[in-house]
From TrEMBL:
The keyword Nucleotide-binding does not apply. This is Alpha/beta hydrolase. It comes from Trebonia kvetii. One of its GO terms (molecular function) is hydrolase activity. Keywords: Hydrolase. Pfam families: Abhydrolase_6. Residues 10-222 form the AB hydrolase-1 domain.
Length: 234
C-alpha cells in the first residue's frame, strides 16, 4: 500500500526587470522546511526562451513540482506548467494569460484610474522602468535603500517577451493558487482579481507591493506550502 505525501519540489520563476536573487528569503524559508527549491534565471528576451529555461529546471527535478511565478513569471508558468511534472501553479501578483493572450494584451486596457507603470520607451529592443519612480511603483513596501538597489540593478526586459502569446494555459488543467497584492502599482489589484477568478485559483490577499516575494517571504512561502500540501502525490 502506498501512502500520499506532499510535493517537495518547488521551482521559482521571476518576472521582468529583476533576476532570481530576489527569491532568497522565500528560498531560505522553504528549504528550512525541507523543500527542494530551484530558481530559474529567465533571460527575459522572449516568452519562448523563458519557457524553455523553466522547463529545463522542471525536468531536473526528481518528482512532481509546485511551479511559482511572480509578475511576468506568471505568463512563463502558464505556458511551461503543462509539463507532466508540474502538480500545481502559484501566481504571485502575476499575469495569468489565456490562450492567445500575452502580457501586451493584458496591459493594453488598464482599469480606469489604475496606476501606470513607469516603463520607459523601448531602447534597442529592451525596456526599463524609470529609476526614480521604480521604488514607489515596484517596491513600495521595501526599505528605501533596498528599493534603490533594485532600481539600479534592473535587468533589461526584452520587448519580444511581452508579445509572446500563450498556446495552452496550464491553469485550465492544473490547480492554482494566487496571491493578490492590494497595494500593487504595477499590475492593478482589479486585474489580479479578474485573472485569478478566471483561472479558478485559490486566492489570498496580502497588503503588499508588487515586490511581495521580497518584502513578505513568509506569506509567500506559506502559500507555496499550502499548494504543495494540497496536491499530494503517491
Amino acid at each position: 500500500m502506498t501512502t500520499a505525501s506532499p510535493v517537495r519540489n518547488v521551482v521559482l520563476v521571476h518576472g521582468g526587470f529583476v533576476d532570481g536573487s530576489g527569491w532568497q528569503g522565500v528560498y531560505n524559508l522553504l528549504t528550512q522546511d525541507g523543500y527542494h527549491v530551484s530558481v530559474v534565471q529567465n533571460p527575459t528576451l522572449s516568452l519562448e526562451g523563458d519557457v524553455a529555461a523553466t522547463r529545463e529546471i522542471i525536468d531536473e527535478q526528481d518528482g512532481p513540482v509546485v511551479l511559482v511565478g511572480h509578475s511576468y513569471g506568471g505568463a512563463v508558468i502558464t505556458e511551461a506548467g503543462t509539463d507532466d511534472n508540474v502538480a500545481a501553479l502559484v501566481y504571485l501578483a502575476a499575469f495569468a494569460p489565456d490562450t492567445g493572450e500575452s502580457v501586451n494584451t493584458l496591459i493594453a486596457d488598464p482599469p480606469p484610474g489604475a496606476p501606470v507603470p513607469p516603463i520607459l520607451p523601448p531602447k534597442d529592443g529592451f525596456l526599463f522602468l524609470d529609476r526614480e519612480k521604480f521604488p514607489a511603483s515596484f517596491a513600495g513596501d521595501l526599505p528605501a535603500k533596498q528599493a534603490a538597489f533594485m532600481a539600479d540593478s534592473q535587468v533589461p526586459w526584452g520587448v519580444a517577451a511581452l508579445g509572446g502569446s500563450i498556446t495552452n494555459p496550464a491553469w485550465r488543467a492544473k490547480p492554482s493558487w494566487y496571491m493578490i497584492t492590494t497595494e500593487d502599482r504595477m499590475i492593478p489589484p482589479a486585474a489580479q482579481h479578474a485573472m485569478s477568478e478566471r483561472a479558478g485559483s485559490t486566492v489570498v490577499e496580502v497588503a503588499g507591493s508588487h515586490s511581495v516575494y521580497v518584502s513578505q517571504p513568509a506569506a509567500v512561502a506559506n502559500l507555496i506550502e499550502q499548494a504543495a500540501s494540497a496536491v499530494t502525490v503517491r
